[in-house]
Specification:
Elements lengths: L7 H16 L11 H32 L10 H30 L3 H12 L1 H11 L1 H16 L7 E4 L2 E8 L3 E6 L4 E5 L2 H4 L3 E2 L7 E9 L5 H13 L9 E9 L2 E10 L2 H22 L16 H12 L1
Antiparallel strand pairs: 1-2, 1-5, 2-3, 3-4, 6-8, 7-8
Length: 317
């Protein structure tokens, strides 16, 4: 019933067009000279209503089919793929239906039909002119079709574009809307995804690894850090219980670089998990190993008179 409501107005419009075109002559409502006008109006309404019914049917079939594919689930790769394809193909078919309907309405008028024949005769020159004028638009439309077929991105994909982290919110034939994490919207032409590199964090799966870097003194106990990382991960539902690694990834003059590697079911969860682990590891070092926090070392040779002289020079200035 909820899907039938969208057909009420176009069906009524079709009924009015049929009456104006085929039945009004049988009733003495008006002058006979006005019958051609009603016939034209009826034809326009009929073409409009048929196009409306076709578009409504297309949208209804799409919604009924996609009801079985919920994108809010965790494992939603196939659902997002189908939603992306159907949304773009729906835009293509609607554009075709609208163009055909407008063309059919214009061809009802003799002057427009004659003009159309003359334009058709010179379609070669006109096509070249239009091609040069609309090459960017045509390129964007073709890129939109390529996205539907090859799918470098899908609806709800997590991407990094122009240094911005966000989710694919809407895909049209000519542009893509990226919902940035701070509620902004980044509008990107479809051609961007075939001309410039970008990061897609959910191309094959929503699962992702998160990293946390901690910089400490050489006196830190790496085994204690590993045990604390394991305890923290096991204490939070943000962790998917797959990856738990702590490694020393660099040794610098002023300290060491420690990397904690963990996994989560999606990028949003991974961000929250990284923030949680970073904060708790720093608190762990502050409470249990304060001597392992980063330090700046100064080696003073002799009696330190040279350093004292330099300090006096600075203070006198």
């Amino acid at each position: 019933m909820k899907h039938f409501k969208r057909f009420i107005l176009p069906i009524l419009l079709l009924a009015v067009s049929i009456f104006l075109k085929y039945f009004i002559e049988k009733y003495d409502f008006t002058y006979e000279a006005s019958y051609p006008i009603f016939d034209i109006i009826g034809s326009i309404l009929m073409i409009t209503s048929i196009a409306w019914i076709l578009i409504s049917s297309l949208r209804t079939v799409k919604r009924i089919f996609l009801e079985n594919f919920d994108t809010s689930q965790e494992n939603n790769l196939r659902s997002r793929k189908l939603h992306t394809q159907f949304n773009i193909l729906e835009s293509v078919f609607i554009a075709i239906i609208v163009v055909i309907a407008i063309g059919a309405i214009l061809m009802l008028f003799d002057d427009v039909r004659k003009l159309g024949l003359s334009l058709f005769a010179s379609a070669g020159v006109a096509g070249i002119i239009v091609g040069f004028a609309a090459q960017k638009f045509i390129g964007a439309v073709i890129a939109g079709l390529q996205i539907a077929i090859t799918q470098p991105i899908r609806l709800d994909d997590v991407v990094i574009i122009e240094g911005e982290w966000g989710r694919i919110e809407e895909i049209t034939l000519t542009y893509v809307v990226v919902h940035i994490w701070d509620k902004r919207r980044l509008i990107v032409p479809t051609t961007y995804f075939f001309e410039k590199p970008f990061q897609n964090w959910t191309r094959t799966t929503a699962e992702i690894l998160g990293t946390v870097f901690i910089y400490t003194d050489y006196k830190v106990s790496f085994e204690a850090l590993r045990e604390e990382l394991t305890r923290l991960l096991e204490s939070t539902p943000l962790w998917d219980k797959k990856v738990n690694v702590l490694q020393v990834t660099d040794a610098k003059p002023n300290g060491v670089e420690v990397r904690a590697l963990m996994s989560a079911r999606d990028s949003s969860t991974a961000w929250d998990l990284r923030v949680f682990v970073r904060e708790k590891l720093i608190e762990f070092l502050q409470k249990n190993y304060p001597e392992s926090l980063p330090k700046t070392r100064i080696l003073i040779e002799g009696d330190g008179s040279a350093l004292k002289f330099e300090k006096e020079k600075i203070s006198n200035k």
